[in-house]
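Bench log, entry 3. Co-assembly request; chain sequences pasted below exactly as received.
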Amino acid sequence: MNTPGLILVVCVAVLYSSGFYLLLQRSLMRVVFGILILGHAANLSLLLTDEAITLPPLLGGPSGEMSDPLPHAMALTAIVITFGVTTFLLALAYRVWLGDENDEVPDDVEDRRISRLTEPEDSS
Amino acid sequence: MNMLLAIPLVVPLLGAAVTLLLRGVPRAQQIVGALTLSVVIVDAALLLARTADGTVVTTQAGAWAAPLGITLVADPMAALLLLVSSVVLLIVLLYAIGQDIGGLSRATPQVFHPTYLVLTAGVCLSFIAGDLFNLFVGFEIMLTASYALITQAPTRARVRASMIYTVVSLTSSILFLTGIALVYALTGTVNMADIAEKLGAAPPELRMVLALLFFVVFGIKAAIVPMHFWLPDSYPVALTRISAIFAALLTKVAVYAIIRTQTLLFFRDDISDVLLWVAIATMVVGILGALVQDDVNRVMSFALVSHIGFMIFGLGVGTAAGLAGAVFYLVHHIIVQATLFLVNGLMRQYVGHTSLRAIRGLTTVSPALALFFFLPALSLAGLPPMSGFVAKVALFEAGFAEGSPLVLAGIVAGLLTSLLTLIAVFRIWTRAFWGTPLPDMVEAKERLRNGANLGGLRFMTTMTGVMVAVGLFVAVAAGPLASIGFTAAEGLVNGDAYIEAVLGEGAR
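Structure output for the full assembly:
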């Protein structure tokens, strides 16, 4: 594999790992950033499908060769989708922050129920 | 160019545009929405009539030949699901319209109608997409619409829930995109028929990894155990009309995608053991969750998770009979789950909430409601002569015919789950429907009886009744439906017809 390809592979690996790390955080802002970074990782891995990634996608370079344009088209579509949804996520995170004055992911409903079970409750 | 295949995608999108323009005129929006879905129903019925004998109908968009262009494909399974989904979509829309006319909802109709039609387009595209990338686009259309729908009438709880829902769905979408990239790197195509041809030459280990990746991607959306945690936290919080359509369709579209990819692309690779283990876990864990819930909506959400397991079981058995059972179960479950959530919505109208702690004697308040809960609940538990019974018998028969120990374990788990489902629904029945109504429930009933919104409420009740009737019809028409299901399953087991229809005669 050529050097730009190798750099991309390392890039994708770093993006995936940091994306998933951020996704598992409790702060919603970090979760949003995690999604963003994961989106980049997926788009870059689409580009990685072609060995000749350094060549221009449509009309050939000096030698007349070109890289496969389809992954570029797919990545474009995916970028648009990720962009739109990220905007929506940011708006949601803002709404959560407006409502609760914090942006932490709350404890799970079930967890709270289980902890309540230690207290006596009415039997019906 | 086959127009039949373009209509389910184009008409709802056009309808969405029109309803967006008509946002000041609620009545016109309602009419356009209902008309659009009626057109889709007629179209789906025609498609089913044409594919019922196993024919595969295809359209190459823009007349680009198969592996290059966008292919839309309808085989019997896709056509059947298209028809059932559009019927459910129309009934839920009419229910929502009744609710809006009665002024009984806090939804924003201006936003609801266009988004609902976009969701329809997404669901339809997912069923008829012939390539992985359009399947992805169909999913995204559907999911993006659902992100907007789940936040209708935003309360704090709803915004929280939709945050969970959106992040989980997005994670699955990103993994899906990664899967597409890997498949494209391996085969150089995204057309599913073409992939099916070319994956044969790929190393089996790689194919196995891809099969599992796609199972996880759609498994998150289908809420199979252990990837189900988001569902009971997000669905019950949304408005009734929305959780009804989510519970009925979104998870089933994902199940459809699992069945499609695992049969067409990865049939040579045996992950059926994994499928069976997951199916057993899904059935048992889901229903155990349902048993301890106090909110009717949450009980139903856990039951939903649990019964996804039956369809995965059918796929895990892997024979034509097993897949036929899974297809029939899909049809049955789409309708029953929608009915139960609509009933929950009516319950919320009468009582104001759905917590079992403070509901008594709904039978006295509304006998119709009790009947409408009772019939689909029995069907969900799989008692004869309901459609659930027919579907479960089909699955278990297929399992006995296969007969390996793990499949038999799956049958035992299925029977246990049916029994526990019966307990779960009877728990709701005895707590919510029997006994003397609480004073505030009688008051609420009187208020509804004398209020200006009685007409809307009657309309909602009628639509729930229609949905119950559709459920009964599935049981009555079990014979013809099962034969379509079997044709569909044979098409799934032997993908040659599908591949030939997409790539042309000379492909094999």
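The first helix of chain B runs from residue 3 to 21. The radius of gyration of chain B is 22 Å.
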